[in-house]
Design brief:
The chain is mainly β. It has a 22-stranded antiparallel β-barrel. Strands 9-10-15-16-11-12 form a six-stranded mixed sheet. Strands 4-3-6-7 form a four-stranded antiparallel sheet, with no helix packed on it. A hairpin with a 3-residue loop joins strand 37 and strand 38. About 5% of the residues lie in helices and about 55% in strands.
Amino acid sequence: MRFITILLLFTQVIFAQKTISGKVLSKETGTSLSGVFVRDTKTENWTISDKDGNFSITIPYFQDIELNFSILGKKEINQIVNNGQNNITVYLEDNTLHLKEVTVTANKERKYSELTLGTNAINNVQAFSLDDVLQQLPGQTTTTFDLNKYKNIVFRTASIHTDAKAFGTSFMINDIPISNNENMQALSPNTLSGGNDFGKGQNRFSNPNLGVDLREISTNTIEEIKVIQGIPSAKYGDLTSGLVLITTKVGNSPYRVSASIRDATSELNLTKGVKLNENNSMNFGVNFLDSKADPRDNLMSYQRVSGSLAWKTTDKYSKVKNTLNLSLRSNIDDIKHDPDKIAADVVKNEKQGVSVSNNLMWKPSNLWLDGININTGFSYDRQFSRRERWINRALTAATDSKEEGIHEAFVLPSQYTSISTVEGIPISTFVNLETTKTITNKANWIHSLSFGLSGRSSSNKGEGRKSSAVGLLNYYVLDDGGDTKLGYRDYDFNRTRTETQFSAYLEDRVYKKFKEDEILNIDYGVRYENQSGNISLQPRINSSYSFNKTVRIRGGFGLSSKAPSLNQLYTGDRYLDRLLGNGIYVNPGVYQKAWILTVVTSGDNLNLKPSKSYKTEGGIDVNLPFANINLTGYYNKLTNGFTGQQVPVSKEIPKVNITTNGTEMPTYEVVGTDNLYYLTNTIQNNTNSEDMGIETIINFRKIKALNLDVSVNASYVRSKDFSKTVTYSASTNLLSTERYGVYPSLPTVNENFTASFNFSYHIPKAGLLLSLRSDHFIMRTSYIPTSNYPNGYLDAQLVYHEIPEADRTNSQKYGHIIRGAISDSQNKLDTMLHNFHLRLSKDFLNGFSVSFYSTNFLNLKPYFESNNVKSAYDYYAKFSFGTRLNYQF
C-alpha cells in the first residue's frame, strides 16, 4: 500500500539534473564514431555523438543510470554509469560473427515479456520474408517453405481460426502502422468475410480481413524486430492479437550485396549507407525475389521487387533528429495457363505501391517538456486481380441490372471465356504527436510521462469488381429451370467512405529502487479510442518487481480493440436473381428469350463494432548461475470477433404470367403479387474466444570449453472458440411446416504443446557459426462438436419457432431436420513428432560471408493414417535447403 500511495500522490518534484559526457570509439580501430544514438533506458532522453565521437546527455536523476549506445553496423550495448561518474568512454564492436558473443535466438528483454530479434537472430534462418524470422518465436514452428500463398501470423493461440485472429496482429515499421484495413481484393460481394480467393487449390493469394501479408516485407533493411505478445503500451492501438515493432537500418554503412537460393526461389539484395556530411546520412536498399511453386515448371510464381530510401538528419546541437523514409514495392502472384487443362484458371494478382513516412524527434530548449515526437505516414497502392477461365456448360441466362424488378436476361452461349477483375486502390494515412517529460520526487521515484494524440484514415478509390465484356462471371449465373441464385454484379469501391480513427493516450513509466537490486518498474496508462464513432477507454499496465539479482516477478493487464476493415463494412448489395416461368424459351433459329426477377438486399455492414481483446499475464524470471529462466502464464479473451451469418429476409415480389404462341415472341404480364422468402449473408460481431497458456524461455550460460550456447523455449496453449452464429439446414421434407432447421454453434477446443531447442557452436576467431534448431510437437488436440439437433426451425415465412428441449431429439417429429449424418470431429496427435533444422555460416575477413541452411535436414517424413489412407502432417516442415552469399565493400 505504501508503494501505491507514493506512486499516485507524489506532489513535490525535484528538478535536479545530472549531465554525463563521454566519447564513443570503434573498438577495432580506436577511431571516433559520430552519429551514435545515445539513449537513457529509463526515460525518453537522448542525444547523438558529434563528429569527434563526443556526446553529452542530461539525466533527471542521480542513481542507477544506464545508457544505450547504437549505430548501424555496430553491436548495440548498454553501459552502466556509476554514482559519481560524470565522464565515460564507450567502445563499440563491429557486428559480425567474429564477436565473442552472438545472439541467434529471440532474446527476452529484461523489462516485461517483450522478445527482441536482432540482426544475428534474423540471419539465423534463411529469411526471404518476415514470416521466416517470426517462426523462431515461442509457440511458432518452422513450416514448409512456400511463398506462393499469403503469409500471416497470430500469437498465443491454438485456434483453428488463425486467419481471422491474424487480422488483429499489428505491424509497425519505425512506429508507422502497416495497414491491411483498406484491402478489398475479395471477388464476390455476396460471399462472407474472406470472399472468393484468386488462387489454385490451397494457395490463396488475396488476404482481405486476414492480416498483413508477411511475404511483402523483406528483411534486407531490418535492423531489429521487437515482438509484444502480451500487453502493449498505451501508445499503440488497432490490435487484438499482438504487436510487432520493426526498426530499419539508417546510417553510414558499406555496400552489402547478397544472393540467396532455395528450391525454386532466388533473391538478390543490395544496400548502402552514405554519410553526406556530419549531420546527414542516407541509406538505400533494393530487393528482388522470384519464387516458383514447382521447380519443374513456371505455372505458379510469386515475384517481389522493392526499394527503400532513408534520409537521417540532425542539427549540430543534437536537439533534432529527423528520419524520412520512402519505399516502393511491386508484388505479383501469377498462375499461367496449363496447356493440358483447357478449363484451368488463369490468375494474376498484382500490387504496386509507395509509402512515405517521417519520424521527427525534438528536444526543445525553452519548454518544460523533455521531448516532442511527430510520426507521420502515407501509403498508396494499386492492386489488380484477374481471373480467366473457359466455361463449357448448358444453356443459361443472367442479368447485370442493379435495379430491383423484372429484366430481360442475357442468354449466354454454352461455351465462352469468363474474365473478371478487381481493381483496388487502398490509401492509408497516419499521424502521431507525442510529448514526453521525466520528473523525480523527493522519494526518488522516477516518472517518465508521455502524452500523445494520433489519427489514421482508411479508404479505397479503386474501380472495384468488374466483369469483362467477353462474358459474365459464371459462378452466379442461373441454371435452367427457374431456380433462384445469388447474382454477381460489378461493384465500384468509390461507393465506400473513408473510415477514420482518433486516439489519445497518457502513460507513466515508473522506476523505483528501494534497496540494492530491489527494483520496481510500472508502466501504466490509458488509451482513448474513437474508431469510426465507436468509443472505448483502454487501461493498460505492465509491472515487474525484482527482489534481488536472482528473482523477479511480472504482471500485466490491458484492453485493446481492432476496427473492422473496409471489406467487412462494404460488401456491396446482394442481388437475388430468379428466372421467371419455365426458364429460357427457345425457338431454334427464331428466338431465345428469358426474364429474370432481381431482388436487391442491402449488403453493407455499417453496424459492425470493433472487436475487443482483454489480456492478462503474469511471470517470473530466475537468474541462476547456469541459466536464465523466464516463465509466463497468460489469459486472453477476444469478444465481438467478425464472422459471417445468414439472415432470413422476406420480400413482396410481382407474380408473372408468361404467354407463348407458336413462333411468336413470348410475352409476360404481371398478374398480382407474391411473397419471396430467402436467406442472405451478413457479417456480425458474433465470435468470442479464450486463449490460456504458459510459455518458457531458458537461456543456458555459454559452455566455454565447447563454444556452445544452448537455449530452450516451450509453449502450451489451450484455445476455446465459441460463437453466437446459428446455421440453417433445409428440411428433407419439402411439404413439412419446418422448412429449415436452426442449429447453434458449439464451442471448439484446441490444444498445442510445442518446444524448441537451439544449439549454437560459435568460434569467434574463425567467424564460424553452426546452429541446430529443433521443433518438437508434444501434443496437438482438436475437438470440434457438431450440433445435429435443432434448437428451433423456420417455417415457410422464415419465422423462427423454438423447439422445446425435450423434443429436439424426437426423430419421429423432427427427423427431417435432424442432421444425423454429421459427426463430431476429434483429432489427437498419437505420438510426439520431432524436426531438425541446420544453419552453417562462415564470415571471412575479406568481406565475404556464406551461409548454408537446411529445413528438416534429416528428411523425416512422419505420416498418420485415417480410413486406411496415409497422409502427411500439414504443419510438419518438409525437407528443403538453400544458401546465401554476402559481400560487403
